[in-house]
Amino acid sequence: MSVNGVSFGSVVAVSGKKSKINKVNNRLQYQAKLGNVIMKDVTEHYRHAPSCGLLAQSVQRGDKLEIYITGKDVDKVKSKQSGWDTLDGILSNLSSYLQIDRMSTGEVVDKIFSA
Question: Is 55 exposed, middle or buried (0-12, 13-18, 19+ CB in 10 A)?
Fold first, then answer.
């Protein structure tokens, strides 16, 4: 008997060139329509941020920054649960960060759903 890994949900930040992020978004459009993933462009949120964290640094280098919300966390965002009702709240639940310029689109999609 084979057992698959269980994913309860995740918030994954992904940075990289705009063209690469767009390829990932195109791959995930069907999953978004099914309600399995929420995609949010948060580049502007970090563009003039005083932060020196990884996300702000990637945007200041000229990368696009997108977050992907999956699994049970999609329901938390949709129902606006406490801590999930603002962009800052969602970002505080970040589970991983990927810099994708040296990854294939397929690898990125797999990591988003396995995080």
Answer: buried
